[in-house]
Amino acid sequence: xxxxxxxxxxxxxxxxxxxITREVLWEMAHADALWALLLAKGVLSSLPxxxxxxxxxxxxxxxxxxxxxxxxxxxLVAAPMAFQREDSTNEGNNLPIxxxxxxxxxxxxxLAKAAAQCMFFHTVLxxxxxxxEVAAFAAAVVRPVTVGFGDDPADWPxxxxxxxxxxxxxxxxxxEGACNQSALLIRQxxxxxxxxx
Length: 197
Prior knowledge:
Elements: H1 2-15, H2 22-28, H3 33-45, H4 48-53, H5 62-74, H6 97-117, H7 120-127, H8 131-142, H9 156-159, H10 165-168, H11 175-191, H12 193-196
Helix pairs in contact: 1-3, 2-5, 3-5, 3-6, 3-7, 6-8, 6-11
């Protein structure tokens, strides 16, 4: 937690907190959903009380960092994030829109799986200040397949052209697999429904 916190404190102080965006968080995590949410969770879990108990200096800009990281993490569901590592200048980059919709659904399913694995919502629900953004994030990851975003199973095999070797094996290669990844998170959220609603 403290390493994540001080890493982002240093970055925020050097470059400005307004420069810590969803793109920066995604890049620092090397486009890995689990790493991105773990970095965010590490920052959001660092509380002044626990730092004081450990005799670690509490940065005065910790509240600013918390809101900055919360915003960046919750914005990872944005459609452009699914293509952050894509070479859009590539001559063969002419995927039809329905395939791009599948890519967005798969990206959101990966975020759902990562959120379940690291119990991201446990921390977010304790630290949340902006409930509409939390609700939007939750809605996007628990239902990654919606009209226009991977709703036709026939489109899924063609979306694999953008996969890395690791992504091809992560359980989101099919529509059913993506929904199963989200189901893991849904089960976790059902246990926290009172806090969420």
